[in-house]
Amino acid sequence: MSERSKGMWLCALAMATVGSTVVASKLIASGLPPFTATALRFALALPVFAAFMWFMRARWPRPDRHDAVLLLCQAAAGSVGYTVLLILGVRWAPAADAGVVTGTLPAMAALVAVLALRERPGRYLVGGIALASLGVLAITLRPGESGDDRAPTAWLGNLLVLAAVALESLFILLNKRLRVPLQPLVQSTAMVALGLLLSVIPALLERAWLQPVPTEALAGVAYYALVPTVAGFLLWYAGAARLRGAEAALFTALMPVSALVLAAWWLGEAVGWAQIAGAACVLGAVGLVSLDGRRREGAVRQADV
Question: Can you tell me the distance from the alpha carbon of 234 to that of 160, in angstroms, rounded to the nearest whole number?
Answer without folding.
Answer: 28
